[in-house]
């Protein structure tokens, strides 16, 4: 199953003694790999980042739900095959 968790990280840059920032980036892990998206420093970009995080969270929840449905379907199929094999007559025609 693929899961993602992330955070918005605030950082500052220092060049020749002057401090610039804050700069925002969205950091998360996806399928065991670290990912990072630069967001920017304005409030509108931060709001956009929050919307993106909520979209990813919703997609992850949906993926998790679909994975659980697939697991249940496989279990039901396994149980049905077991019942079918128990109830079917054995033929020695080979």
Question: How would you explain this protein's 3D organization?
Answer:
This protein has one helix and three strands; from the N terminus they run βββα. It is of the alpha+beta class and 94 residues long. The protein has one domain (4-83). Strands 1-2-3 form a three-stranded antiparallel sheet, covered by helices on one side. The longest helix has 45 residues, at 43-87. It starts with a strand and ends in a 7-residue tail after the last helix.
Overall form = rod-shaped
**Helix- and strand-based class?**
alpha+beta
Sheet with the most strands, sense and barrel status: 3 strands, antiparallel
Number of continuous helical runs: 1
The helix content is 40-55%
Largest sheet: spatial strand order: 1-2-3
- How far apart are the termini? 43 Å
> What oligomeric arrangement do these chains adopt?
single chain
Instruction: Report mean pLDDT, rounded to a whole number.
Output: 83
What is the β-strand count?
3
Strand content: 35-45%
As a whole number of angstroms, the C-alpha radius of gyration is 25 Å
The number of domains? 1
Ranges where pLDDT stays below 50 over 5 or more residues in a row are none
Sequence of secondary-structure elements:
EEEH
């Amino acid at each position: 199953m693929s899961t993602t968790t992330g955070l918005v990280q605030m950082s500052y840059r220092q060049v020749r003694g002057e401090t610039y920032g804050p700069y925002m980036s969205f950091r998360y892990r996806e399928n065991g790999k670290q990912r990072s998206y630069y967001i920017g420093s304005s409030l509108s970009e931060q709001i956009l980042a929050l919307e993106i995080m909520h979209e990813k969270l919703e997609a992850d929840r949906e993926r998790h739900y679909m994975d659980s449905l697939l697991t249940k379907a496989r279990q039901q199929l396994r149980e049905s095959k077991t019942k079918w094999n128990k109830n079917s007559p054995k033929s020695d025609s080979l």
